[in-house]
Design a protein that fits this description.
By secondary structure, the protein is α+β, with helices and mostly antiparallel strands. The chain has a single domain, classed as Arc Repressor Mutant, subunit A (Orthogonal Bundle), CATH 1.10.10. Helix content is 55%, strand content 14%. The protein has a three-stranded antiparallel β-sheet with strand order 1-3-2. Helix 2 crosses helix 3 (29-37). The longest helix is centred in the last third of the chain and has 14 residues, at 57-70.
Length: 71
């Protein structure tokens, strides 16, 4: 984790939409939706707020690091 990532995490949750996460990870939002519908879900951890899906930036960064370590 870089010092920039740590500062972002320390600032509290930053909620991203599925489109924003898809843009960051270079995945189509539909791919993220498909992963979320699997049992168990794949991809970064997400939360539903009413009918909306949101991703905490810290969870997205952690997932990215885990994928890099697994490769």
């Amino acid at each position: 984790m870089t010092s920039k990532d740590i500062r972002l995490v320390d600032a509290g949750p930053t909620w991203l939409t599925r489109d924003e996460v898809g843009e960051r990870l270079r995945f189509a939002p539909k791919t993220l939706a498909n992963w979320a519908s699997e049992n168990p879900p794949r991809g970064p951890r997400f939360r539903k707020v009413g009918r909306q899906v949101r991703y905490d930036l810290a969870d997205v960064v952690a997932w990215q690091h885990a994928q890099a370590e697994a490769a």
